[in-house]
Design a protein that fits this description.
The chain is an alpha/beta fold. The chain folds into 2 domains: about 10-215, Collagenase (Catalytic Domain) (3-Layer(aba) Sandwich); about 230-335, Sandwich (Immunoglobulin-like). The protein is about 15% helix and about 25% strand. The strands form 4 sheets. Strands 9, 11, 12, 15, 17 and 18 form a 6-stranded mixed sheet that branches. A 5-stranded mixed sheet has the order 2-1-3-5-4. Helix 2 (about 65-80) packs across helix 3 (about 155-165). It binds zinc ion.
Length: about 350
């Protein structure tokens, strides 16, 4: 559902539309904190990477510019979902109708949807030129040169596709400085306000899509709208070694297990930077001695080192700046190395 906003009457508009949102049965969810993933609509999901085919509703076919905008929004989902969320594709045999007119929309809705996961969905766009109590609806796509005050139908369709996937409206900061972190918004903006023509899913839309549908691969980045704790473990193949023996260290990085993280819970995390650090037994200063290459199975990193003295080791995953994972430090692993004996020991240097 998309509601309009009116400059200068926002307070009233918010109240009015919240009432309407409840009246038309928008699911209520626990209040989300600002800058968290879009809330989940709570009901089911569609199959991962499934393709939901839609057709124009018989007797209520949208005009060509709106059809083009809807198809573009379906392509936007595919290009920017960064997850295994379902895809949308026009198909003349599609069983999910997209119509033009009042349909299931409430009195003030510009567009609206129904979802019945995993079986199907519907979508409606209100007519260009429709007179509401707040003014006349203008779709930007219906003009050769779009005027200020028009709504971008591609952006609105992207909001609706987000809902169909199972996303609720993003909860913005009070000053809305994070508005463009989500295209799934209670209040759509009109040209030329920032975000009126978003043609990509925002990071907080993607975050909830990842939670509900998973990422495509253990190496894919997690949305920066997430803040997922990780767990890093470290083991060695021996606790005692002969002098100069080889120790193989194996680290494993995963998302913490928590039902709040949905399909991301317990995910192994591969191809990140894991550093191996060493300190003298009982020491306080850690020194990085290697970056551990990733290996199989997924989430595993390993380094082999020849050791010439007892030491303590740990693995470190620093909090990345480019994705929504929290760093972790493994527990310490102690390795005792026997003193050198025999004929090939380094000689102590005495004098010159
Ligand atoms: Zn909406």
């Amino acid at each position: 559902m998309i509601f309009p906003t009116r400059r200068g009457q926002r307070g009233l508009s918010v109240l009015l539309n919240l009432v309407i949102a409840i009246a038309i049965g928008h699911p209520t969810t626990a209040p989300a904190t600002a800058h968290s993933p879009d809330p989940s609509l709570g009901s089911g999901t569609f199959p991962q990477d499934g393709i939901l085919k839609y057709d124009w509703r018989t007797g209520a076919v949208p005009p060509a510019p709106i059809r083009v905008a809807v198809n573009a929004a379906a392509a936007d989902v595919e290009a920017t979902r960064a997850s295994r969320a379902a895809l949308f594709a026009f198909d003349a045999a599609g069983t999910n109708p997209i119509g033009y007119g009042t349909g299931t929309c409430g009195v003030n809705g510009l567009a609206c949807f129904t979802r019945n996961a995993p079986d199907g969905f519907t979508m409606w766009f209100r007519e260009h030129g429709r007179v509401f109590d707040w003014g006349t609806l203008k779709w930007c796509q219906m003009y050769t040169s779009a005027p200020n005050g028009c709504y971008d139908a591609e952006t609105v369709a992207l909001d609706e596709f987000g809902h169909i996937e199972g996303l609720g409206h993003h909860v913005n900061f009070a000053d809305e400085r994070d508005y463009t972190d989500a295209v799934v918004q209670t209040f759509s903006r009109t040209k030329p306000r920032e975000g009126y023509n978003m043609h990509v899913l925002g990071v907080c839309d993607v975050a909830q899509l990842q939670v509900r549908y998973d990422t495509g691969h253990a190496s894919f980045p997690y949305s920066t709208c997430l803040d997922l704790p990780t767990k890093l473990s470290l083991s060695g193949n021996d606790t005692t070694l002969p002098y100069g023996g080889t120790e193989t260290f194996t680290a494993f990085l995963e998302i913490l297990t928590d039902t709040d993280y949905g399909r991301l819970s317990g995910n192994p995390v591969s191809r990140r930077t894991i550093r191996l650090q060493r300190r003298p037994p009982g020491g306080t200063t850690w020194t990085t001695i290697a970056t551990m290459p990733y290996t199989t199975p997924t989430g595993t990193y390993a380094s082999a080192l020849r050791l010439y003295g007892s030491a303590e080791f740990r693995a470190v995953f620093s909090t990345p700046t480019n994705e929504g994972l929290r760093g972790d430090v493994s527990p310490t692993v102690s390795v005792t190395v026997a003193p050198c004996s025999g004929t090939h020991c380094p000689m102590p240097v005495i004098g010159r």
